[in-house]
């Protein structure tokens, strides 16, 4: 377990908002636009999960992105990704797709299953102003490519980004220093994670219920962790067998202007993105690096 001296406390618990996105995919949106400033550098977190094909089958046909990164984590199911650069990948159970849209990508994300459970997360992570127009990049990670670590207390941790329990995650980012872990915690067990001072952090419980500094966080809800003075991480106790994702990152403290799938620093840059998209210029030079 990461050794921490003082835990962060829960500042606020957020229940998600049921929304439809793409061509009609049912989503629980937990990180919404009004929270972008508070949770900088994170812009959005969606949790999708349904056994009803009608809730996901229409998928996300061709759409653009500019100015940030999208991270899709598939717990269960299969989704195929195609983009304007000719990249293609199949995201299967336990896998992660990390895409840096940079100056522009047009892509589709379509279910490759007609029945059964599809469950996972899509996270949007902002890019610093200096990187918003960088060349696009993406990488698919199979379940086996995500580093895993177990703690003496019985926690099983998948380290998608950052570092946990001395294990480096699949992805590292210099400016935002994102931490993204998926933790499975048996009933009654405790888990600690170091979090950088001043980094914004939250966890989302998707099975069971956990307790942070005496406050219960039920399933399908997000706990925003306070930026307590002197706290060096977070301690989490499971009620019943529980699963949660925990995220933290260094705030950019730059202006955030979002218009749908574009997130830039100014209204003028948004107009430019829309114009580039309409003129067919967005995504034309995209290539995998
Ligand atoms: Mn997308």
Structure write-up:
The protein has 289 residues and is mainly beta. Helices cover 4% and strands 50% of the residues. It has one domain: Jelly Rolls. It is built from 1 helix and 26 strands. The strands form 6 sheets. A 7-stranded antiparallel β-sheet has the order 1-22-19-24-17-14-13, with no helix packed on it. Strands 2-3-4-11-6-9-12 form a 7-stranded antiparallel β-sheet, with no helix packed on it. Strands 5-10-7-8 form a 4-stranded antiparallel β-sheet, with no helix packed on it. Strand 7 (78-83) and strand 8 (88-92) form a beta hairpin. Manganese (II) ion binds at residues 60, 63, 65, 70, 107, 109.
Topology:
Layout: E1 10-15, E2 17-21, E3 25-31, E4 42-50, E5 60-65, E6 68-76, E7 78-83, E8 88-92, E9 96-100, E10 105-111, E11 118-126, E12 137-141, E13 148-150, E14 156-161, E15 163-164, E16 167-168, E17 179-185, E18 190-194, E19 200-207, E20 209-212, E21 215-218, E22 221-225, E23 233-238, E24 242-249, E25 257-259, E26 262-264, H1 267-278
Antiparallel strand pairs: 1-22, 2-3, 3-4, 4-11, 5-10, 6-9, 6-11, 7-8, 7-10, 9-12, 13-14, 14-17, 15-16, 17-24, 18-23, 19-22, 19-24, 20-21, 20-23, 25-26
Bound molecules: manganese (II) ion (MN).
Keywords for this structure?
mainly beta; seven-stranded antiparallel beta sheet; 26 strands; Jelly Rolls; single chain; binds manganese (II) ion; 289 residues
Number of domains: 1
Biggest sheet overview: 7 strands, antiparallel
Let me know the average pLDDT.
94
Low-confidence stretches: none
CATH superfamily: Jelly Rolls
Beta content comes to: over 45%
What's the N-to-C terminus distance?
A: 35 Å
**Would you identify the CATH architecture?**
Sandwich
What top-tier CATH class fits best?
Mainly Beta
> Roughly how much helix do the residues carry, as a percent range?
under 10%
Query: What general form does the structure show?
Result: globular
Number of helices: 1
Strand order of the largest sheet: 1-22-19-24-17-14-13
Remind me, CATH topology?
Jelly Rolls
Question: Which ligands does the model contain, each kind named once?
Answer: manganese (II) ion
Class per helix and strand makeup: mainly beta
Tally the beta strands: 26
Could you state the order of secondary-structure elements as H and E? EEEEEEEEEEEEEEEEEEEEEEEEEEH
């Amino acid at each position: 377990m990461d050794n921490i001296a003082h835990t962060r406390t829960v500042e606020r618990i957020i229940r998600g908002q049921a929304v439809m996105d793409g061509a009609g995919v049912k989503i629980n949106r937990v990180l919404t636009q009004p929270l972008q400033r508070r949770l900088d550098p994170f812009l959005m977190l969606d949790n999708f999960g349904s056994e009803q094909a009608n809730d996901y089958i229409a998928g996300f046909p061709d759409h653009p992105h500019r100015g940030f990164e999208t991270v899709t984590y598939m717990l269960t199911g299969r989704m195929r990704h195609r983009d304007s650069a000719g990249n293609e990948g199949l995201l299967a159970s336990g896998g992660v797709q990390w895409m840096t849209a940079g100056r522009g990508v047009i892509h589709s994300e379509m279910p490759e299953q007609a029945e059964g459970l599809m469950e996972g997360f899509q996270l949007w992570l902002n890019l610093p102003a200096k990187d918003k127009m960088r060349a696009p990049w993406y990488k698919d990670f199979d379940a086996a490519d995500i580093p895993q670590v177990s703690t003496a207390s019985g926690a099983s941790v998948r380290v998608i980004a950052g570092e946990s329990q001395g294990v480096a995650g699949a992805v590292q980012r210099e400016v935002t220093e994102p931490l993204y872990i998926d933790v499975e915690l048996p009933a009654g067990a405790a888990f600690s994670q170091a979090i950088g001072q001043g980094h914004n952090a939250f966890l989302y419980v998707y099975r069971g219920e956990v307790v942070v500094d005496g406050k219960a966080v039920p399933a399908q809800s997000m706990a925003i962790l306070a930026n307590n003075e002197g706290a060096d991480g977070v301690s989490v106790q499971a009620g019943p067998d529980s699963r949660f994702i925990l995220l933290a990152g260094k705030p950019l403290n730059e202006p955030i202007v979002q218009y749908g799938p574009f997130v830039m620093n100014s209204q003028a840059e948004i107009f430019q993105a829309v114009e580039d998209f309409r003129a067919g210029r967005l995504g034309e030079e995209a290539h995998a690096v």
